[in-house]
What we know:
By secondary structure, this protein is mainly α. It has helices spanning 3-29, 33-52, 66-71, 80-106, 117-138. The chain contains 5 helices and no strands. The radius of gyration is 20 Å and the shape is flat. The model has no long low-confidence stretch (mean pLDDT 83).
Amino acid sequence: MSETVVNAIFxxxxxxxxxxxxxxRQRRAEKxxxxxxxxxxxxxxxxxKVMNNFTTNRKTxxxxxxxxRRNRVRADFLPYELKSSLDxxxxxxxxVNNRIDTARKRNSDxxxxxxxxxxxxxxxxxxxxxxxEWLMENASKPEYAPRRRGLFG
Length: 153
């Protein structure tokens, strides 16, 4: 093999390891209550930005719902009102994503007209506010602090 091919393979392996490390770090952070809340809050912030710039064409970005759906069961430390507003926001985001998928599949913007942007913004704003309040109240509590990792993980 030539030196160029070996260098390309080496750089590709390093890039793959770097990408896997970023992915694994995100997942590991979600194991702590603070990491879970920060992950869900970043998802809600992303969805707020998408809904503020929402257009009725099929090129609109989809809303994120994976973090809350993945961690919903483990979020028993959150208040009931916060969990219910996150469930409502996630359900509405899923509906919007289904409309976006349908519009893309059918190559028609008419499926996007029925999206009530203001109705989706309300639970997102409520969830965002409640998550920020929870973080402010509980960020310094030792039971929610990330555990220190030892030498081997």
